[in-house]
Amino acid sequence: MTDSAPFPVWPGPVLAIETSCDETSAAVLVGRTVRANIVSSQVDLHAQWGGVVPEAAARAHVEAILPVIELALRTSEIPLEGITAIVVTNRPGLVGALSVGVTAAKTLAAVRGLPLVGVHHLEGHMMSPWAWVDDHAVDPVYPHLGLIVSGGHTELVLVSAPGRYELVGETLDDAAGEAFDKSARVLGLGYPGGVAIARIAENGNPQRYALPRALPKDPNHFSFSGLKTAVLRLVEKEGAGICVPDAAASAQAAITDVLVQKALASADYHNVRQLAVVGGVAANTRLRTELQREGARRGIAVVVPPPALCTDNAAMIGLAGSFRLATGSRDGLGLETLPNAPLPPNP
Ligand code: KG4
Ligand code: ZN
């Protein structure tokens, strides 16, 4: 680390593990550079049930975890003997799923005599834009605002210094990813909904159907439950005559318009000039381009990680863990898994 580094990181190679929901992932980082980031998705498994089944997720993690770790090490060209610390998501998430990654991490740390640190999944998402992957290398400025948009979260987090998080806003009802997923289900587009809507919306007219954009007065709050009901009503009203690409494009526009307006209003409200957009929904092309265009117009730099670092992955966990290790955090072999947990404490 140099004096000009925006935040401290652990200097040696780190092995990171993420199993909090439906992706089994392992990554190797050296400083901020991602040397390998392997993700084994369970999407096809859970598609038959239309959502994540916790017991099935845990079993699939058990099957995938060792091959995924081995592949991450091989891809990074750093053998296990070269790894200097182990980091793992231990909260929040599905406890059965988390336990698989945490057990693997503890075993590796014990056998190799390495430091171990548990990472908060959302701190991983918050750190994802600052990882160096291919030609993506962006520095945070402090303070900045984080917009976390995933299947379970729509949150605004003010980051006043490295690791200093303040939750300043959230959805009053559904998460943005949930709005995508539920709209997709109503439109018969299957699971997971975000990608399905984005794909079919490419051939649709976003102005065809008028759908509500709920804009609660407080600049920090979101609401998406009305949209789901409106899409359901639209399907009932139009029946077989509905144009699905147009409906998908209209739903996508309604969700992304709200995110763009509210996130930039909140950035202004908190007087920050950098907005980091993270989580699975940040992979959405329309959201990325609209935020960047509108942000540029208003003098707010919008940073979005490469799509592979938006959805759940171990690289982001590795960077958050590296930062925690460098600021002195250590966990013992008693590290617990937690279904719910507040944002991590100041380092
Ligand atoms: O961050 P993530 O992988 O998992 C959670 O922690 O929830 O986010 C998953 C969510 C799902 O709701 C999925 O539909 C949405 O992200 N998503 C997308 C896209 N890719 C994933 N939503 C819109 N457009 C996409 N391209
Ligand atoms: Zn996530």
Mean pLDDT: 96
Biggest β-sheet description: 5 strands, mixed
CA(first)-CA(last) distance: 17 Å
The ordered H/E elements are EEEHHEHEHEEEHHHHEHEH
Query: For the CA atoms, what is the radius of gyration?
Result: 20 Å
Number of structural domains? 2
CATH architecture label name of the largest domain: 2-Layer Sandwich
Extended strand count: 10
**Overall outline:** globular
Low-confidence stretches: none
The small-molecule ligands in this entry are:
5'-O-[(R)-(carboxyoxy)(hydroxy)phosphoryl]adenosine, zinc ion
What is the CATH class of the largest domain? Alpha Beta
Helix coverage percent of residues? 40-55%
CATH topology (level 3) name of the largest domain: Nucleotidyltransferase, domain 5
Strand order in the largest sheet: 3-2-1-4-5
CATH superfamily of the largest domain: ATPase, nucleotide binding domain
Structural class: alpha/beta
| Strand percentage | 15-25%
Overview in brief:
The chain has helices spanning 43-47, 54-76, 95-112, 121-127, 176-186, 193-201, 225-238, 244-269, 285-297, 314-326, and strands at residues 13-18, 23-30, 33-41, 85-91, 116-120, 144-149, 154-161, 164-170, 274-278, 301-303. It is an alpha/beta fold.
